[in-house]
Structures are given as structure tokens and as C-alpha cells.
């Protein structure tokens, strides 16, 4: 259902952006309201709150998938550096959205520094992954680029974006964010093959 709502929302947003005809704009507004009602029904919250969240930026209003970038960092013992998220208390790689005028690689390096204090360089691409809309992880599709990184400087420190920051054996992580455990295993295989 959320994938359908995402498409309806995208059609409505593009229509409102490009249409000059007042009748068409009214129809697109109706589509946008239907999408908000659908999101509200699916998530169990009032549609007016959905509209407010979309307008306030709490949920990014989007007609294209969001692009994310993750930095996977291992220590000499093959433990992966993870941060405990403030939004759901689950463990994830240093990660975030790619900003305007930035490549996914630059975003991964930036996010690693902002969230861990470590300066890193990209070693290789682990993979490109798609996360579809869900009640648990958000209203919109995200395409995520995951990069294996090597530490080249800086000092490990926590940021305001986490509830904890530490190296973990992949098998010992108590609760992962989204599907990051499978991505961590793929990254570890690449790390072991190249021993970066």
C-alpha cells in the first residue's frame, strides 16, 4: 500500500509543480489529500498530521527516491563500527542522505567524519540497495550506496546523532537497523579479501 501511496504522492507533487491550469491543480490537490489520508490510515495517524509532517520536513516530501550513503569501517579484528540511532535505538553504519552538489562517495566520507570523528577514504563499493516504503522505516523509497572505507585519520568520538558508538562483531549486534546485517556480511567478505 505504501508503494502505491508514494506513486500517488509523486504524481500529485509533479502535477502541482508543473500545472498552470486551475482545474488540474485542484485535481492534483485532491490526489495529494488522498495520499495523506492513505498514509494516515496505514500508519494509524490523522491525515492532517501526515500533511503537517510532510510540510514541516519531518518526512521529506519526495517524488524521487532519496539517495543515501553509508560508510562501513572495520578494525583490525574484523569488527564493524556502528552507531546506535536516536530514532529507533538500533545499530547502523555511519550514514545519511546525499546532499545537493555531493557525490555518494563524498557523502559517505562526510557522514563518517560527522558521526564518528574519523577521517576515511573509500576503498570499494559494497553495493547499492533499495529500501521500499514501510511503516517502520519511512514513507518513501530510499536507494542506498554502501561503501567500504579505510580510516586515514581523526579520533573516534560520539556525536549528537547517536546513543552509542562502538566496534561490534557482526554476530554480536543485538538489534540491527533495517537490513544492515546482510550488508555488513557482504562488506566483511570484501574487507577480508582485500584486507584493507
Explained architecture:
There is one protein chain. The protein folds into two domains: 2-56, no CATH class; 66-194, Nucleoside Triphosphate Pyrophosphohydrolase (Alpha-Beta Complex). It contains five helices and seven strands; from the N terminus they run H-H-H-E-E-E-E-H-E-E-E-H. It has helices spanning 2-18, 22-43, 47-56, 104-116, 180-194; strands at residues 66-73, 80-85, 91-92, 95-97, 118-131, 142-154, 162-168. Strand 2 and strand 3 form a beta hairpin. The mean pLDDT is 89.
Rg of Cα set: 19 Å
Alpha plus pi helix count: 5
For the largest beta-sheet, the strand count, sense and barrel status come to: 4 strands, mixed
Q: Give the strand line-up of the largest sheet.
A: 4-1-6-5
Q: Give the class-level CATH name of the largest domain.
A: Alpha Beta
Number of domains: 2
**Number of strand segments:** 7
Note the beta-strand portion. Answer: 25-35%
Amino acid at each position: 500500500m505504501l508503494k502505491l501511496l508514494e506513486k500517488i504522492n509523486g504524481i500529485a507533487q509533479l502535477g502541482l509543480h508543473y500545472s498552470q491550469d486551475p482545474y488540474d491543480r485542484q485535481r492534483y490537490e485532491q490526489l495529494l489529500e488522498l495520499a495523506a489520508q492513505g498514509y494516515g490510515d496505514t500508519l494509524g495517524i490523522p491525515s492532517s498530521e501526515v500533511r503537517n509532517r510532510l510540510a514541516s520536513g519531518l518526512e521529506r516530501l519526495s517524488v524521487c527516491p532519496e539517495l543515501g550513503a553509508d560508510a562501513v569501517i572495520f578494525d583490525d579484528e574484523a569488527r564493524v563500527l556502528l552507531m546506535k540511532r536516536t530514532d529507533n535505538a538500533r545499530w547502523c553504519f555511519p550514514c545519511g542522505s546525499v546532499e545537493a552538489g555531493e557525490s555518494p562517495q563524498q557523502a559517505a566520507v562526510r557522514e563518517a567524519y560527522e558521526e564518528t570523528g574519523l577521517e576515511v577514504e573509500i576503498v570499494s563499493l559494497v553495493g547499492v540497495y533499495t529500501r521500499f516504503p514501510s511503516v517502520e522505516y519511512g514513507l518513501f523509497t530510499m536507494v542506498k550506496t554502501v561503501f567500504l572505507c579505510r580510516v586515514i585519520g581523526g579520533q573516534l568520538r560520539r556525536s549528537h546523532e547517536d546513543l552509542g558508538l562502538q566496534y561490534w562483531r557482526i554476530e554480536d549486534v543485538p538489534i540491527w537497523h533495517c537490513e544492515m546485517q546482510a550488508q555488513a556480511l557482504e562488506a566483511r567478505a570484501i574487507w577480508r579479501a582485500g584486507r584493507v
